[in-house]
Structures are given as C-alpha cells and as structure tokens.
Amino acid sequence: MKKLNLAIAAGVLTALIGGVLVLAYGRNVDDKIAKGRAMTPVLVATEALTAGTAGASLKGSTELRQVPKAFLATGTLASLDDVSTMTLVAPVPSGAQLTRSAFGRPSEIGALKPSTGNVALAVGVDLVPGVARYITAPSMVDLFVTYTGGGGAATAPGLADSRTKLFASGIKVMSVSVAPRPEQPDDADAAPSAPLGDQVIAVLDVSPVEAERIVNSATLGKLYLGLSSGERHVTPAGATPDDVVKSNR
C-alpha cells in the first residue's frame, strides 16, 4: 500500500512539474510574440531618395512611423541628428526604413576601389535573382546564367534548348543598393509598371575577363546571384530541362 501511495504521489508531482513547465513555456512564447508586436518609432522615406543627398536635407522627405519590432531593419534611425553631417551612399525607395548603413561621409561617396588589376562592375537584377536583398557588402556571390533558345550555343528557340550554368564563383560584392522606384504613369488605364523598388544593383570586384562574361550573361541571358560562403564552386556542363525532369532526387 505504501508503495502504491508513493507511486501515486510521484505521479502527481510529475504532473505538477510538467504543468508548470508547460505554463512557463507558454508564457515565454507569449512574451516573445508581445515583444515582436511592440511598436518602435522609425524614420521612413516619404519619397524616393537619391544617393548623395545630405542627411541634414532629408527632414521634408522623411517621417516618423510606428513599426512593429519584428519588422525592424537593422540599424534603424529614429532621428536625423546622428546623420545630419553624413550623406546617403545609395538610393532609398519611398516607404523604406532609414538605417545607419545607408549613410556615409561625403568624402567616401564614389570612393569604391576594386582590387589591383580588377574592375568594379555594376549589375542590376530583379529581387529574387538578387537573393531577395540578403546580399550585403562585402558578401561573396556565385553567378549563374540561363540561356534560352538562341542564347549561347543553342541554335533553335524553345524551352528544350535552355541551359543554366554556374560560370563565376567567389566574387566579392563591393556595394549593394536598391534602384529608385520608377515613376507611376499618369494614365490610370496604362499598363502597370514593375513592382516598385524590386531592382537590386550590386557592384562586383572582378577581373576584366570575368567582367566580359558577366556582361555577356546579362545581355544575352538571365543573370542570377547566389550568396556564397566564399569558396570557389565548380559545376559540370550546366543543367537543362531534361536534367530536371529525369532527376531521381
């Protein structure tokens, strides 16, 4: 009987401990959710801001908005006081949060210098091919190109002739910016423009030979950037539609 009572007491104690742990975990989750919803004042651009604009002149082009903490960009600003003597180093689209990394000293503007023997090459890609803006300087990227139809060695147009190839690896990114939002058409019936602020511009530190290949890929095919660990990657002949549909993985 004593053993039975002890077993019951132990079971009750275990249940109580489990209940306390579950309650504590639930409260911890609720606290994290509440913190993520907490509103924080952040300066937001009310119009497209161009690179080279002095921080002291941005008062009429920005406003303070309350943004949930979970959606804050890194290094957001609540005042222009800290950047009043600095200058925007890259365009800022309307509606974007202002961050400290967007500003630099006036003497630093246009001071990007490639490695000895290399050139600084700017490439523009859409949001997704640009790794959804996760690329920052000095990230390393791999470059992929997809040629369809008449591009490259293909002779006949069509999906069956398309090929995607990794052709450059371990490329250093010197700077990244988001292209200014295009002007909206005055005619309401006009065709809608591309999604605003969805063009990423990356300046790459490359050799002249690599620059030729990148320009060729951007001109004749579709260029994609892949965020890299910095290691040099090499692939075989590339991937075709047949490689995709025949894959067993």
Report on this structure:
This protein is of the alpha+beta class and 249 residues long. It has two domains: 39-108, Type Iii Antifreeze Protein Isoform Hplc 12, CATH 3.90.1210.10; 119-245, no CATH class. The protein contains three helices and nine strands. The protein has helices spanning 2-37, 208-220, 241-245, and strands at 39-45, 62-68, 87-88, 103-104, 119-126, 140-147, 163-178, 199-206, 222-228. The strands form three sheets. It has a five-stranded antiparallel beta sheet, with helices on one face. Strands 1-2 form a two-stranded antiparallel ribbon. A two-stranded antiparallel ribbon has the order 3-4. The protein is globular, with a radius of gyration of 26 Å. It starts with a helix and ends with a helix.
